[in-house]
Design a protein that fits this description.
By secondary structure, the chain is of the alpha+beta class. It has a 6-stranded antiparallel β-sheet, with helices on one face. Strands 2-1-7-8 form a 4-stranded parallel β-sheet. Strand 16 and strand 17 form a beta hairpin. Helix 2 crosses helix 4, helix 4 packs antiparallel against helix 6 and helix 5 packs antiparallel against helix 6.
Length: about 525
């Protein structure tokens, strides 16, 4: 789970989930109850602020955006947990670290929302006008544009950083980037505070004192797995440690799910993965301006597609049991019109009349009824019995194989009762030598033999050819006709009365180089 940092908020974020998800709604109302129980409670309501339209929303105010942002993330974690979706690992970007700690079960929901609330309160007390901006450049490319009063606050990816500092100085850096690199992405964020910069020093101690009242083993809100929480304002994890952690993470088979009001970290995450030559699925629970219920369910569906075990029953029934809905009205099915757009090729492929024949293959759907074409890719591994036809050390496709192929073609092309086939004018041009090291592509073309200029006969001209990777070779040609009348006699000779000279016959063949297996 990847937790978005602040500045991705937007009016009515998650509103549809607040209306459609019982778990999401319960979580938001519970956090509102916690905030109201504080000695100095807020004068505003979480629910009211999340439902306000853009015209009256005050999400640009840090005292509102911080707790609302974290509340959305905690409620998303709860809604996912209800479906048995729990993280293998978490990463929090900027203020997203609070909800990330909650998802990792290091702090409780009560501690998390109070941390966010206090963070918003003390941030509002910073007197110096500050600003932040996102820049589509790496650290090394951005550093030359920096001026006194501006720092790189976040190194988001190899091609993305966030700068922070004095408002005027940040604007100067943006102008310099736009002047030298007019096509480069560089945009001020919708915040009025310079988070992760020297501006935070003046409220650091105040925040630390507030946090110590509500977080830790002595707090009434503490959970069973608490850790000492130290707000991060200036400290940085050493780069070798970051790289080591990142390499460990990317060595696993993962799915990345962003938890926040927008897919703000999708771009940086893909850049990180691309640099590491890794490819992992990514999705976001919410997307700015889109229906929250739809994006949430879409993310859940994508997780399911990627083989995560999800309790889908809880999407419709909170207790996790399936429901039967017996009173749905009958649906008036209409079969008059088809809404399936399908061309002839796809239709013929789906509704093939004949299965693949191991020698002839299957009919090429692009060929016509007058000149049908059959294609096969022959592999000795799939048809090992052909290896028994060995002539002086080479595996040769047998003449009987050609006969069987054109006989099968005649059967598939026969429109009436099929009782057999007849051949005439058969010519074996070149032997087809087969090897175990590679497959052989075989094309059998068939076309009606003309009787007159206007009439076709009952015979088909056929040619069997193969492709060796550079050129085509013709192996067999002739004419074939399907027989549709009953045979003249169905009398069969008694095989037991025939002489059995198999061993002598195979030995005689070996003497002339035909190393047939058997006998």
């Amino acid at each position: 789970m990847v937790f978005t940092g602040q500045s991705a908020q937007w009016p009515q974020m998650g509103l549809e989930l607040l209306q459609s998800s019982a778990t999401f709604k319960k979580s938001i109302h519970y956090m509102e109850k916690i905030l109201k129980s504080l000695p100095d409670p807020p004068t505003w309501s979480l629910v009211d602020e999340l439902t306000k339209p853009a015209e009256t929303s005050k999400l640009d105010k840090s005292y509102l955006s911080q707790p609302l942002f974290t509340a959305i993330q905690i409620a998303l974690v709860d809604a996912l947990s209800e479906l048995d979706i729990k993280p293998f690992g978490v990463v929090g970007h900027s203020s997203g670290e609070i909800a990330a700690a909650y998802a990792a079960k290091k702090i409780t929901a009560e501690e998390a929302i109070i941390l966010a609330y206090d963070r918003g309160v003390v941030s509002g007390k910073v007197k110096r006008p500050g600003a932040m901006a996102a820049v589509g450049l790496g650290r090394e490319e951005t550093t030359p544009f920096l001026v006194p009063g501006v720092i790189i606050a976040c190194e988001n990816s190899p091609l993305s950083v966030t700068i922070s500092g004095d408002k005027e100085a940040v604007n100067d850096v943006l102008q310099a980037i736009h002047s030298e690199k007019p096509n480069m992405f560089a945009r001020a964020l919708k915040v009025k505070k310079a988070y992760h910069s020297h501006h935070m020093r003046e409220v650091g101690e105040t925040y630390n004192s507030l946090v110590s009242l509500h977080v830790g083993s002595k707090s009434k809100y503490a959970g069973s797995k608490n850790i000492e929480y130290k707000p991060v304002f200036f400290s940085l994890i050493p780069m070798p440690q970051i790289l080591d952690i990142g390499n460990q993470i990317l060595s696993l088979r993962l799915v990345f799910l962003e938890i926040g009001p927008h897919s703000a970290l999708g771009g940086p995450l893909r850049q990180i993965l691309a640099k590491s030559f890794a490819s992992y699925p990514y999705m976001s629970c919410l997307v700015r301006g889109k229906n929250g219920s739809e994006t949430f369910l879409s993310a859940v569906g994508q997780l399911w597609i990627h083989n995560l075990q999800i309790n889908l029953n809880r999407l419709t029934n909170p207790d996790g049991t399936a429901r039967v809905v017996p009173d749905l009205p009958a649906y008036p099915w209409q079969h008059n019109d088809s809404f399936m757009l399908e061309n002839r090729i796809a239709k013929e492929w789906r509704f093939r009349k004949f299965p693949k024949h191991e020698l002839l293959g299957i009919r090429v759907t692009e060929s016509t009824d007058g000149e049908p074409v059959f294609r096969n890719v022959l592999s000795l591994a799939h048809i090992p019995w052909i290896q028994d036809h060995n002539i002086k050390g080479d595996v040769i496709f047998p003449c009987a194989g050609h006969v069987g192929m054109v006989g099968e073609a005649a059967r598939q092309l026969c429109e009436g009762l099929y009782t057999g086939f007849a051949l005439r004018q058969v010519v074996i041009d070149t032997a087809m030598v087969l090897t175990e090291s590679k497959s052989t592509e075989i094309i059998t073309t068939v076309r009606r033999a003309p009787l007159t200029d206007a009439l076709d006969s009952a015979w088909w001209d056929f040619i069997v050819s193969s492709y060796d990777g550079t050129s085509w070779t013709k192996h067999c040609s002739g004419q074939v006709s399907a027989l549709t009348s009953p045979p003249l006699s169905d009398r069969a000779e008694d095989a037991s009365k025939l002489p059995r000279l198999v061993a002598k016959w195979y030995q005689a063949l070996r003497n002339v180089g035909a190393n047939y297996r058997g006998g």
